[in-house]
Amino acid sequence: MFTIIIPTHDRPLLLKRTLESLIAQTCQDFKIVVVSDTPGYLPPYQELSQLDKRFDYVLRSTGVPGPAASRNLGLAIADAEYILFLDDDDTYRPDHLEKLKARLLKDKPELLFHDFQIQNEDRTVYPPTLLPGGQKVSIADVTSDSVYVRNRIPNSCVAYRRDVLQGVRNETDLIIYEDWDFLLAAMHGRKLVHFATDGVVIHKSAATAPENMRRGNSRDDKIVEVMLQLYRKHPAPNMETRKTRQALMASAGVVLDIANF
């Protein structure tokens, strides 16, 4: 049913936690592809062995560092009906895949997105210390048009039917928002369907923590630049969405030519 692609970069203990959440799933109808862009530590053999040979662990030695190229390599291997992405520091609640499978089997949607939970934590110790401020997040109000303006759907909260991703790949040159670019490319001519479940847990540490720097979490200086790049690459589907883009950019002090975006 699922291929779960997990890019990882020098975070073996957090990766172990992610794999443990997969081992605990009440639905085991999945394979995983773990793609590491650093060879500095041994694979988590103990956890992988519990997945009964339903995994590929790949050391990527070519291409630029970062999750985009690793996700692309995972896509080249993936062969299940639905493709999921999961970061190496995030987890699933034990019944997440069971609920997701039951929903997908109803009508086989091309693109299904769902809600999630946020758990703040201190990663200076292991296991990480849980911090206050966790929350359940509903994104039921997200529409296809709104995704063309800004993206509120985490990468780990989309189930892609594999045929939708023919020719769609992650842009490795983007510093931020490569997951938004990927989603927009997959959406062309397709409908987004919402599912009210929140079995994905997104674990957050401070944005300026060392483990986040490679992901561009603190690159606020690039936000407008990259958004404009994506606006050009993925033209708005209608005039109302163009006006919404224009208004958002105006709030950042940028004058947008509505005819070109």
TrEMBL record:
CDD domains: Glyco_tranf_GTA_type. It comes from the Bacteria. Residues 3-133 form the Glycosyltransferase 2-like domain. It holds the Pfam family Glycos_transf_2. This is Glycosyltransferase, GT2 family. Gene3D superfamilies: Spore Coat Polysaccharide Biosynthesis Protein SpsA, Chain A (3.90.550.10). One of its GO terms (molecular function) is transferase activity. InterPro entries: Glyco_trans_2-like (IPR001173), Glycosyltransf_2 (IPR050834), Nucleotide-diphossugar_trans (IPR029044). The keyword Transferase applies. The keyword Cell membrane does not apply. It comes from Duganella sacchari. SUPFAM superfamilies: Nucleotide-diphospho-sugar transferases. Keywords: Transferase.
